[in-house]
Amino acid sequence: MEIVKTEIATIPAVFELYNFATAYQQKVGTNNWKGFEVSMVENEIAEERHFSIRDEGIISATFVITFNDAAIWKEADLEPSVYIHRIATHPDFRGRNYVQKIVDWTIDFAKAKNLKYVRLDTTSGNNRLNQYYIKCGFSYKGISEIEWNESLPEHYKAGSFALFEIKI
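^ that's the sequence the OP posted. Answer follows.
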């Protein structure tokens, strides 16, 4: 298992993971992803913020990082932080603790960049997922009501979001 920068050539595999994740979200009844633009992923790859996990020779998971998230984190966004978004895992690879590995990798990344926090958000009301993030080392920081704008993916239009952070 290794975490690598996502390449343009693997965009179809990334979107397959997004489709698997969306189907799972629909199954468990949470606010599900509404799809993403290929151009957005291409931009994230160009900015070296899109990553994949290769396991057994295939892209088995993916995630994105960003350094600003004011729409979700409001004033807290002024603190130097890295934000994890769009974690998606192939169903055949669930149970391999990828989220914990992503978190550990991101903590190391944050330390190297002298950032103060690792943060993420998820749809509020999903207690099982909330507890999982806490188990991965995050502290629950409350709920953020999102004022959606065109810079945010469509799934942020609906509802509130639970905030989690790890202080470095």
